[in-house]
Structures are given as structure tokens and as C-alpha cells.
Predict the structure.
Amino acid sequence: MPETVPQKSVRTLDLPARQRFDCWKSALSETFVPLEVSLPGGGGDFRGRLSGCELGSLRFFEVVAEPHTALRTPRLVRSAPAGCYKVGLQLRGASVLIQDGREATLSPGDFALYDTDRPYTLAFSDPHRMLVLVFPRDLLGLPQARLAALTATRIRGGTAALIGPFLGQMAGLLDEVGGQAGVRLAGNVLDLLNTVFHERLDCFPTDPDSGHRALMLRITAFIESHLADGDLCPAVIAAAHHVSLRQLHKLFQASGATVAGWIRQRRLERCAHDLRQGGSCPVSAIGARWGYPDPAHFSRLFKAAYGMSPRDYRYLSEQTPCAGVQD
């Protein structure tokens, strides 16, 4: 069976006008990190489309929308840390990114780096199109203290000129790329970003962690494609990648996670996704689909992660404006 890429799609035009902006706010916070989102005029109709997928540990999204502002406040950073970097590539329109006391105005072809665990503001004054990459901070081969000098700085020209066309082509292939091919592409993107950031900081040391990052991408892609397998466990993952259990656990510890915790989180996220789709599929069948054949065990795990039972989560999702919009 071919491996698939988890897809996400939100289109506000599928909703009544009065519900569109509320849906957009929810979609941005759920897709990226919790954000405060506002309109220049304070309300009204809104048109936006968000689509993307996960390629191993790299998340890739295309955002097409009308003017709005997204604010990552200190309170949201404290309450929901994410441990990720984001890279925004402006394709149409313009944006202003503010972080760490710097302000970058992005035009088509420009991109910028920002850290989800520090406050930032991203404002769009015109209709726009942007590609956004999200990935764990430890997948880049530079210390966070060094990269902090690059946040909210406009990057273009030189090696950076290669990134726009490459990502633009990727955006058109998201429906076709999956499995190991997607992981290799994700690795290429991260290597290219590393080269650009090294160039900007005038340092080109050998990156001793590049092999670990590539292995982590392969392993997380393997986990994504086998979440439905009831026998997925650290021993199976280690054997499939020809590493010891000790090496596998050490690799995940460096990312601040455990192997079992990673699998559990991704399975529950898939369950939550299916529950949000509504339909007549029994809750127990959704749990079984993603590796939880025992309904009581599934319910306990889900409630611990989401604060409510799977049944209540489905009911509340059906009452929200975005129900039925995400794929």
C-alpha cells in the first residue's frame, strides 16, 4: 500500500459569511500555534484558504488570504510553547514580521525566520499568498543563540534565491509527494535553509548533527505511515532503521520526547481529526483505526490529552464553524 501524506485544507468560502473569520482564527491557531488574530476593520466577511501537509517532521503550508494580523503574545507563548521555527516565504502581496525588536517587511521572493516560542506579530495589509514551513528547532544545525540574530530579518538574494522557486514547485506537488520521497524533499529543504543561514552568519562549520536530523526525518515519516499498525512500537521502529533501541531513545530524547509519547500524540491527533469530520463512524471504530482497539483505553488516553471524552469532542466539533471544512 502506498504511503500517504497527511493533508489539511481549510476554505472559508465553504461557510456562511458570518462564520468565516471565526473559522479562520481557529484554523490558524490549530495549524500553527495559538494566536490572536484580528481584521483591520475589526470584523466582517473574510476570504482565506489554507492547505498543506506533513513531510516527516516538516510541516508545509500555503496560505492565501485577505488582510489580517496574527499576534503571538507572551501569554500564549507561556501557555502553549511549541519548540518550533517557522519560515515564511512571501509569494504575493506584502507582510510585516516583528520579533526580537526587529521588523522585516517582506515582498514577493523574500522570506524570514521566526521562533514560535518568542512573541511575534505577522501583519498583512493586502491580499496575499505565503508559504509557511514549521519544524522543530533542533532540526537546524545552528545553536538557537546564533539563529536568534536572524529572526525577523528580510532574507533574499545569494543562495537564498534558490529557495523561492524550489518551495514554489513543492507547493504544486503536495498531493503527489509522500513516503520516503517526501522525507528526502524535507531533508533537502532543511539542508538548503541551513546553507542560507550559515551564509548569513558567515560561518560554514561541518554540521555533526545533519545525519541525526536526516535519521529523525526518516523515522518520523515511518511512524506516520504506520500509525494504524497495532504492533508499532520502539523495537519495530529500531529494527526497520537498523539502529539499537538505545540509539532510538537517545535520538528522541534530544527532541524532548519519547518514542512512545510521539506515537501516542500522533495517533490521538489522527483520531481527533477523524472525530472532527463527523459522520456515522462509531467512536470505537475510529480508535481502533489508529491503534486503539480497546474503547475504554482509547477514551482514557483521549481524555487525558484533550480534556474530554472522544464522544464529547465530536459533539463540540460539530457545533463549531469549521466543522466539515478540514480534510
